[in-house]
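ARCHIVE CARD
Drawer: 12
Card no.: 0347
Subject: one protein chain, sequence and derived structure
Cross-reference: see card 0346
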Amino acid sequence: MASKLMISITHAKDNTDKATVGFVVANASVASGVETVVFLSTEGVRLSQKGYADDIHEEGFAPLKKLMDDFAEAGGTIWVCSPCFKKRNLDENNLVANATIVGGAKAVEFLTTGGSALTY
């Protein structure tokens, strides 16, 4: 079993199902004791903003805000793609819990040192 897992989420309100399922899997991973990172890129970076996910609730799943809060409380890490974030003129001072803006090199390092990845 992989000791490190990256869940790459590339969607937000443009595909709330993928955004939600990404965090469902991330929660299962971190709950299993796996070092888990959610990497938000392209439209997914919008999830890094406090309040953005508050009204996202896919039928059959917990609300996305709860999934994100649970992930942070369990010690999960959220990395936010710097160029994607900047392109969308988002607010660095409005990041959700456990979120950090990073460059692509951080993701590459994680994956080349034993991490596996899933993309939503």
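Annotation on reverse: Strands lie at 4-9, 35-40, 77-81, 99-102, 115-119. Residues 4-119 form a domain with the Hypothetical Protein Ychn; Chain: A, fold (CATH 3.40.1260.10).
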